[in-house]
Amino acid sequence: MSSRRRIFVVLVMLILLSILYVSLSPYKEKQRTHSLNAFQDNNLQLRQIICHDTDTRLSAMSLPFSDDERTGITNELKREDKPDNSGAVMYLVNYTNMFSQNSSTPEADPNNASTVQTWWQAAAMIDWYYNGPVRYTCQHIKAVGNWHICQDFPYTVSPPCLVYSFGINYDFSFDNAMISLGCEVHSFDPSMKLETHKRGNNSAFYKWGISNVNSDAYQPRRDMYVKHEQTWKMRTLKSIIQELGHEKRVLDVLKLDVEAYEWGIVDNLIQTDVLKYVRQLMIEFHLFPNFPARSEYVYLYKTYTRLREMGFREYATWREPRNINERRFINQRAVDFVNYFFN
């Protein structure tokens, strides 16, 4: 084929390709418009699900989002789910009948913390928190010594896990069980006649206590564990994390059994913003006849309420001594929480 003939053939092919491109352009534009409309429709569908359809909210997760976007949407959906405390009405009525000396005491709204004004209203709400329905149904509860953990994803506790255990009283059954799971375990109790020491390759005991203040000369109140005058080393959780070099670690399990000191500690945990690093929280709550003072009960109730509202949901509670009367008021309960918003 001559060079002139080859040039002619190439020109003809270019002309044909140009005609084909022009003819397909409207179709491409239609397809692009259709894709954009589909994307907008999906976004509108998502907004409708989030705002209006409480029964099918989580179906939004079937839409095409990245993992980070999906996590953010899931957490936003969770945060919209406010606990309903209407079941506490009967607790408020019963406590008022037992303890109120003034018939003109304003009624408390169980869904409005600001309306709880008296010690017995606060005690009634705390009792409801102890005994009301759990707000997270754990499918895989595992016994670990004398406590329990939830092994549902994303709360699963597995190596390299980190555990802080406050309040031992010579019973290391929980701590040993967590060591057996492959966790790094740090045990704390200033009341025991043991000095700080390494317990094993991945565990240690500290003659320290957790508090809402830092002190090297803290004098505890007398109780069944403190028979004589003692001086304790006390640290906030934030300070302990710093001293042990765990600032960049997730605290998989935080256990507190500290004989009514937990109320001030929880307030400090909230104030110092360390709870966002905690995967699971175990607390034995105590209301003793003379400690804390009844004048503090409204504050205790509001502290517990703040803990719940920031995403710590009960998956199990365990009965402890309970005596609801004026002279010897005692109400204790061990409560296991998951951090519902944990990522």
From TrEMBL:
Domain of life: Eukaryota
Domain Methyltransferase, residue spans: 110-315
InterPro entries xrefs: Methyltranfer_dom, METTL24
Any Pfam family the entry gives: Methyltransf_22
Protein name from the UniProt record: Probable methyltransferase-like protein 24 isoform X3
Organism: Biomphalaria glabrata
Classification lineage: Eukaryota, Metazoa, Spiralia, Lophotrochozoa, Mollusca
Gene transcribed to yield this protein: LOC129924432
